[in-house]
UniProtKB/TrEMBL annotation:
It comes from Xanthobacter aminoxidans. Residues 11-71 form the HTH tetR-type domain. Residues 34-53 bind DNA. It comes from the Bacteria. Keywords: DNA-binding, Transcription, Transcription regulation. The keyword Metal-binding does not apply. InterPro entries: Homeodomain-like_sf, HTH-type_TetR-like_transc_reg, HTH_TetR, Tet_transcr_reg_TetR-rel_C_sf, TetR_C_16. This is TetR family transcriptional regulator.
Amino acid sequence: MTKTRDSSAPASGRERILAAAVARFSRQSYDETGLREIAADAGVDVAYVHRAFGSKEQLFHEALKCAVQMDKIFDALGADPARMLAAHLLAEDEPDATVRPMDILIRSLTSPKAAAVLRTAVMEEFVTPLGAHLDTNATQRAALAAALLMGVGILRDVLELPALSEGPGGTLERSVADTLAMVLGQAGPKI
């Protein structure tokens, strides 16, 4: 039997650190964010942050995983990954969401240390699992799908390009899904 944490129970120190890291990395760049600040936000000693996560790079990687939650996305991938990924990309943010995963990415792209972590995270959390669903040129096609999704996400959510502002279920979602299907080798273009 699996135990689930009672939502009214206080969060563990590790959970508080992770939540504080996600919040900090979504507001500040990797280089501007310090472990002492995260520790203070979480109400723990900085030594506990080191014990719980090992290093700032490892904490950043865990914060990315927590914010993006790719495991949940891949659990729901189903028979039509292109449609599911397009729907997820254009889904409305949760009403109480204070962090958008794209914020963490954008704020830290210019840091060489963060870029190394981001590269590893994209490969481990997206490209490799998606590639497992593909046959020929799997890694390249999965990486191209990641580039397409990130590019649309940046132009839509960060730059707020009006042409990409349409919500879920419309022509934009169908266009993204059709393009992804072509990239993933699921079908030819339907344009």
